[in-house]
């Protein structure tokens, strides 16, 4: 009896360890990155703001047969709701989501280059770019984003490759604010 109980417990622990390893393999860069932090050009930046702007469902790609739910998510080291022209910040990560649904959907998504055109309404498309403090925009060429939860209570994890060859990895785990991008 003791032997069968031991075997069952060891089997359960083994299964848990295997499942946990999938999370580590999926987003390997997150080890060493704290909650609400990103790593870019060997710098770690604390994310203090997360906002979202919904645009709704529409034919965003100019093709009537391709219908998506669109929204933008903004992550930054400064409070964008109260930012002015003189506000100093290092980074704004903009995630533009075209969901193959009539609302925002959690899941793991591949980020596409900005030149990408979807084949149909069943394909979710995510574009991303960085706005830096010097006004430069850097496009994200590829990578993965994981959304867990529902708006506005999302956990966001990302591991991205930028057009300048750099990597951008991190996560955000705070309630997103309703936000309108004005600048």
How would you describe the overall organization of this protein?
It contains one helix and eleven strands. The protein has 183 residues and is mostly beta strands. A hairpin with a 2-residue loop joins β1 (37-40) and β2 (43-46). The radius of gyration is 19 Å and the shape is globular. The N and C termini lie far apart (68 Å). The model is unreliable at 16-25 (pLDDT under 50).
List descriptors.
183 residues, mainly beta, 2 domains, 11-stranded mixed β-sheet, 1 helix, globular
Count of the domains: 2
**Compute the gyration radius: what is it?**
19 Å
- N-to-C SSE string, H for helix and E for strand: HEEEEEEEEEEE
Give unreliable regions as ranges.
Answer: 16-25
| Oligomeric description of these chains | single chain
By helix and strand content, what is the structural category? mainly beta
Helix content: 10-25%
The portion of residues forming beta strands comes to 35-45%
Terminal residue distance: 68 Å
| Inertia-based shape | globular
**Main sheet overview:** 11 strands, mixed
Would you report the number of β strands?
Answer: 11
What does the average pLDDT come to?
Answer: 83
- List the total number of helices: 1
């Amino acid at each position: 009896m003791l032997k069968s109980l031991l075997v069952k417990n060891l089997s359960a622990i083994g299964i848990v360890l295997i499942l946990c390893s999938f999370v580590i393999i999926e987003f390997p860069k997150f080890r060493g990155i704290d909650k609400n932090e990103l790593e870019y050009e060997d710098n770690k930046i604390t994310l203090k703001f997360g906002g979202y702007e919904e645009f709704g469902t529409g034919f965003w790609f100019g093709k009537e047969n391709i219908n998506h739910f669109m929204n933008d998510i903004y992550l930054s080291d400064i409070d964008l709701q109260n930012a002015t022209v003189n506000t100093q910040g290092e980074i704004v990560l903009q995630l533009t989501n075209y969901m193959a649904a009539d609302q925002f959907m959690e899941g793991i998504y591949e980020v596409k280059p900005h030149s990408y055109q979807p084949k149909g309404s069943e394909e979710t498309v995510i574009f991303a770019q960085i706005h830096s403090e010097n006004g430069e925009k850097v496009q994200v060429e590829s990578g993965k984003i994981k959304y867990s939860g529902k708006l506005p209570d999302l956990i966001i994890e990302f591991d991205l490759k930028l057009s300048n060859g750099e990597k951008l990895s991190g996560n955000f785990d705070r309630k997103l604010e309703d936000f309108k991008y004005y600048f």
